[in-house]
UniProtKB/TrEMBL annotation:
Belongs to the CDP-alcohol phosphatidyltransferase class-I family. This is CDP-diacylglycerol--inositol 3-phosphatidyltransferase. The chain crosses the membrane at residues 21-44, 85-108, 173-192. It comes from the Eukaryota. Its cofactor is Mn(2+); Mg(2+). GO terms for biological process: phosphatidylinositol biosynthetic process. Its EC number is 2.7.8.11. It is a multi-pass membrane protein. The lineage of its organism: Eukaryota, Fungi, Fungi incertae sedis, Chytridiomycota, Chytridiomycota incertae sedis.
Amino acid sequence: MEAIDNFAKKQTRVYMFMPNLIGYTRVILAFLSFLFLPCCPITAMTCYSLSCILDALDGTAARRYNQCSQFGAVLDMITDRFTSSALICYLAMVWPKWTFVFQFLIALDFSSHYFHMYSSLASGSPSHKILKEDAPKILKLYYSDRRVLFTVCFFNEAYYVLLYLSSAYYGTIFTFQFWAILSWIFLPVFVFKQSLNVIQMLGACLNLLEADEKKIKESQEKAN
């Protein structure tokens, strides 16, 4: 551990920051999981799960070594998005009747986080996790309490994993088999996460509209 600390503290180039090295590892593990999806369920989900678990460590490393960066924040969010989306695409292949639902989930996920990230940058916020005072309380709780953030994200990703394992071993989730039963247990938190995505997107849209209205009003006042 001391050797890792010494290595991390000596890094001055952003691309070699410890949280970014963790981010690169996440990307490699994610693509390995995609490679094994058609043939090796346990190997695929082990790689996928490790990639998701490391998501909780890059933020810790950034704070521990004071290595927060815009590059790292974008790398983290992009990795989250494409990792989930790739697995959802595969689920749409094995369960074609649910394709529209999976397409909707990808669209909601990308739209929500893009609007939120852009809104945060436009408002000058140092992080997309720092919300305005008038932001919805449930969203502020989600981003301010790491335990809530980790739990909700864990259940969300785990639900996709359980859907995949159910498809690989049973071909359905409507069965009293282990992975299928777990998927139903995890479903309420998964639905809650999607509702947070909706709230986040609507809030970000309103913030951007408010900022645009303010600029228009200021320009009109200057013109008069």
